[in-house]
C-alpha cells in the first residue's frame, strides 16, 4: 500500500502530450487537477514537417502555454508527461511512433525547455511513468503496482508504492515499452501480420494499440460488416457493436486484447509482487468494462500454472478513472520535490538510498 506523503502544495502546471491529444492542467491540491485546455496533438499524421520541426512545435506549445498560465497562477514548477520513450536518467527523448513516426528521434526536451524558460523548474517524464506516479494517490494493495495504457500506443510502468520509485534500466533509463515486443495475432482464428508505426513487423502495438486496432478494423475481412455499417467511423461502429453485444465485434475485441493478455500473463509469472495492474487510455475508456472483461476472458483461457484461483486476475486488474486526467495528475505530483514521493516512515539514510537509485 502507498505510504507516500502527498499533502497540499503550491500550484503546479502540468502537460500531457500524447500522440492524439495535448492537455494542460493545473494541480492545485495534493492530487486535484483542473483541465485548462485540450487540443489535437501536432504529429506526423496531421503536419507535413520533418521530425525536428514537429519537436520544435511541441516545445513552442509548452513554452507559450507556460508563459500564458504563469501570468495567471504564479507557479514555479511544471511537469510534462510525454507520449514517447525517454531515458529516465537523462531526460533524453528516444523516439515516439505516435508523434513522429518510425525510427529514432532523439532530443533533450528538458534541456530545450530550460533554455527557453530557465526560471521554471521543469520535470519531464514518460506518460506511462506519469500514470504510474498517479497511482500513489490511491490506496492500492501490496508493494508494487503497474500502470498500463492502451491509447495511440501501448506501454506499462511498474512503481514501488512505498517510495514512488520507478525502476529503470541502469544505463538506458527505460522500462515497460511493451508495445514494441513481438506478438502473434489471429482474427477469428486466422493468423494476421501487421507493421507497427515504428516500422517493425508484428509488434504488440500493431495489434493492440488504438492505432493498431483502427488499422486492422479498416483492413480485416472479418471487420467488413462494421465498415459497411459506418465507413467513415469504423472505430465508432466497433465500439457501439461491442457495447450492443454483437458476437462478431466481441470476438474481434478478444482477438485485439489477447496479445496484451499474454504479456500480462508473463508479468504474473515473472513478478508476482505486482498485486494491482491498472488499465487506462482512450481504448480502455471507450470500451469501458467490456475491455477489462475481454482481457480477463483471455487470461482465464491462457491459465496460470500452479494457481487454481478463478478470481486471481479479476482481483488484480482494474480500470483507472476515465476522466482522462491521470497523466496530468501524475506529472504534477512528480514535478514537486522528489522528497514528496518518499515514504515518510523511512529513515534519512533509507531516503537517501531511494533518491540515489
Automatic annotation (TrEMBL):
Domain of life of the source: Bacteria
UniProt keyword Cell wall biogenesis/degradation present: no
One Pfam family linked to the record: ROK
InterPro entries: ATPase_NBD, ROK
Protein keywords: Kinase, Transferase
Segments traversing the membrane: none
The keyword Kinase appears for this protein: yes
Gene3D superfamilies to which the protein is assigned, alphabetical: 3.30.420.40
One term of GO molecular function: kinase activity
PANTHER family for this protein: GLUCOKINASE, ROK (REPRESSOR, ORF, KINASE) FAMILY
Family that this chain belongs to: Belongs to the ROK (NagC/XylR) family.
Protein name: 2-epi-5-epi-valiolone 7-kinase
